[in-house]
Amino acid sequence: MNAEDYFHRVKGLPITGWRELTRGEPFAVLSPHPDDESLGAGGLIAQARHHAQNLSIILLTDGSQSHPNSKTYPRDRLIATRRSELAEAAGILGVPLNRLFELGLHDTAAPSEGPDFEHSVDRVSTILASIDARTLFVTWEHDPHCDHQAAARLAQKLRRRDPALTLWSYPVWGWHLSPSHMVSAPAPKGFRLAIEDVLPQKRAAIAAHTSQMTDLIDDDPDGFRFTNETLEPFLRPFEYYIEVPLR
Length: 247
What we know:
Helix content: 40-55%
Largest sheet: 8 strands, mixed
Distance between the termini: 20 Å
CATH class: Alpha Beta
Number of domains: 1
Structural class: alpha/beta
Order of helices and strands: HEHEHEHEHEHEEHHHE
Low-confidence stretches: none
CATH architecture: 3-Layer(aba) Sandwich
Radius of gyration: 17 Å
Number of helices: 9
């Protein structure tokens, strides 16, 4: 089906609560870049932490390619900035620093196969075991970004190793697919999570990613910046979680 029809169905998914979505157990959010965790799952994280649920955020890449030509924010400074922004956003959502994990893969180059991919799977598996997480939230496999797709493949490989692991995906860039774009996926199954009670927290966490939301870095004409239009899907009173089928 095309993206317009697919996301029409996503918006009509039944409503559930954070506890039902996570079974009230420890869980993890796998974020390709610093900000995806707040954009796609900030409401879920805030609600769970409000009830003292244990959870962790696992960051896949270093975020170093959002402003690749900046002179004032060369690669090391940009990585440090984005790491600091993630820590601030996590704090706003109630996640302590010792629950943030980083794989440090190069932005736009997260592997989808081969030895480096298998090593990344091993690392995330070890993290999940250390926090006793039985549910993992990851970006949608059809998001039009290579790192989001790599994260989804990593999560799928983890579940092939451990079929008891529950996987949910959250769209980020999928919301901006052309309406006529064909989505090679079955009709979505999953849930909407009502987050109006924590929406101010989620907005503040998104805003904490200053380098992505403002003109903080203004010396790279090819640099990335969210706009009101691209932010709109993430400021709604619902988040959307799509069941990842076992395959």
